[in-house]
């Protein structure tokens, strides 16, 4: 059981003091009855809470898919540059949002933003082998040796060893590849190609686990991830 003002404020649309005012004004109901006091307790998973007759769709956590554009950094706040959190629309905002895994400023694509630390830890931990899929535009074509090196585990130029990864050359007018990694070392994909004497010119993340970036989501836009989609990320 939790305090009603805390439950409502946790959803991000009202501050705790706003909720107290709403309750005072008699605008909040719990299971159909007007709430008299902000310290009324309820089970957030079961209670039917309404404000001005509109039922609160309580969610313990929120999971957001962002199609990140270039020039936006994967941080929660920054004094000079726009962050991925700045792109979250008001109706999805709440305390404690952070990007589950970072993309470089010049990398585009799928960033998952959540307030669920346990989930983020699970999907980022290399132990859980959740693959992150990228499309890289390269300076030169891949060789069979490059493909084999990715499969064996690349040693970065500073001696860091990467876990086994996958790379598949893609047909096109410029050299491109699809890369799958289950780790998130700093600049990892760029450094893996650099270790092979190649260079990443463009990088886009298109998939986390089995969940693809929604290609109808414009760059800079967010949408909530459904429960069904969430399961795809951790699917084995
Ligand atoms: N690897 C990189 O080099 N950059 C990213 O943004 C993500 C993975």
Q: Would you mind describing this structure in some detail?
A:
With 236 residues, the chain is of the alpha+beta class. It has three domains: 2-55, RNA-binding S4 domain (Structural Genomics Hypothetical 15.5 Kd Protein In mrcA-pckA Intergenic Region, Chain A, Roll), CATH 3.10.290.10; 61-129 and 214-236, Alpha-Beta Plaits (2-Layer Sandwich), CATH 3.30.70; 131-208, Alpha-L RNA-binding motif (Alpha-Beta Plaits, 2-Layer Sandwich). Helix content is 21%, strand content 26%. The chain has six helices and 15 strands. It has helices spanning 4-10, 16-24, 117-124, 144-152, 188-195, 227-234; strands at residues 2-3, 28-30, 33-34, 41-42, 49-51, 54-55, 63-68, 98-99, 108-114, 132-138, 166-170, 176-181, 200-208, 211-212, 222-224. The strands form three sheets. Strands 7, 8, 9, 10, 11, 12, 13, 14 and 15 form a nine-stranded mixed β-sheet that branches. It has a four-stranded antiparallel β-sheet with strand order 3-2-5-6, with no helix packed on it. Strand 2 (28-30) and strand 3 (33-34) form a beta hairpin. The longest helix is centred in the N-terminal third of the chain and has 9 residues, at 16-24. It is elongated. Uracil (URA) binds next to helix 5.
CATH class (first level) name of the largest domain: Alpha Beta
The averaged pLDDT comes out at 97
**So what's the overall shape?**
elongated
Q: Which range does the strand content fall in?
A: 25-35%
**Spatial gap, N to C terminus:** 34 Å
- Write down the domain tally: 3
Q: CATH H-level name of the largest domain... which superfamily?
A: Pseudouridine synthase I, catalytic domain, N-terminal subdomain
Total count of strands = 15
> Which parts are unreliable, with pLDDT below 50 for 5 consecutive residues or more?
none
Helix content: 10-25%
The CATH architecture of the largest domain can be given as 2-Layer Sandwich
Oligomeric category: single chain
SS-derived structural category: alpha+beta
The biggest beta sheet reads: 9 strands, mixed
Ions, cofactors and other bound molecules: uracil
How many helices does DSSP assign? 6
What is the fold-level CATH name, i.e. the topology of the largest domain? Answer: Alpha-Beta Plaits
Gyration radius, in Å: 22 Å
How do the helices and strands follow one another from N- to C-terminus?
EHHEEEEEEEEHEHEEHEEEH
